Input
Amino acid sequence: MPVNLPDSLPAIEMLKKEHIFVMNELRAATQDIRPLKIAILNLMPIKINAETDLVRLLSNSPLQIQIDFIQLESHVSKNTPLNHLMEFYRPFSSVKDLFYDGFIVTGAPVELLPFEQVNYWPELIGIFDWARTHVTSTFYICWGAQAALYHFYGIQKHLLEKKLFGVFKHTLTDATFPLFRGFDEVFYVPHSRHTTVLAEEIEKNPSLKILSESDEAGVYIVCSRGGREFFVTGHSEYAPLTLHAEYLRDVNRGLDSVEMPKNYYRDDNPENPPIVQWRSHANLLFVNWLNYFVYQQTPYNIRRIQELGDL
Output
């Protein structure tokens, strides 16, 4: 089922070319159901790409979804046109009294900075705290996951010797967990980051549960509060050519020791197209999150979210 989006959002035309169904506001209004309300705090510099990636996965569900894109007020994006932000994004101050069934926080290209040196850190952690009382389940991605683990649980991020870049094999620590219904025993996830969190530090905190790991990429998914919070270190939402674009960007910048993404190009040749090994996992991950931890847990009267405890 479709995601209810503003008619002129650029992601709509991109997704229609992929034969992905999205619903306009007029048609959505004729359905006599309460749509799931999902907020997305998009911290990525090129916001239109991140919007498209996330909407692609959220649309692959039998649920009607209404999305609000949220922007920070203490930071001005330099890579997205101002008119796009003004038309499609809401400042956090305009939604802070609202309630959402689900909330997604993306990554951000600030991972080499200490958290407190990020110029929007005070506003961001205020939003994190807000989510705990105004959202049924929150899905933190990449740097967003590291930031939330640090804020709520004091988990430090650690600098890697070199950038973790490519598509890596993952396994489950608890195959019975509902988030993984339908998963294979081994699945693949893209990663692109310079920092990581350590399993041994997470395991010391009884409030946190590691759900998936990788021999090469480390901790992948951590859960807290029974599924009211997920911390996802990889980029399962990435489009097929996202890692390729990042690789070309770094090559064109003349960065020293640029390595091509691992396990990505056919025959490990960047002249060849990538082998897309993560699409089915990505769709299952988001659909299972929407079904088991948002739709089946959220109250019909959305304001009663504040009465929820841990799941």
Summary: The two ends are 26 Å apart (CA to CA). The domain at 3-238+282-307 is CATH 3.40.50.880 (Rossmann fold).
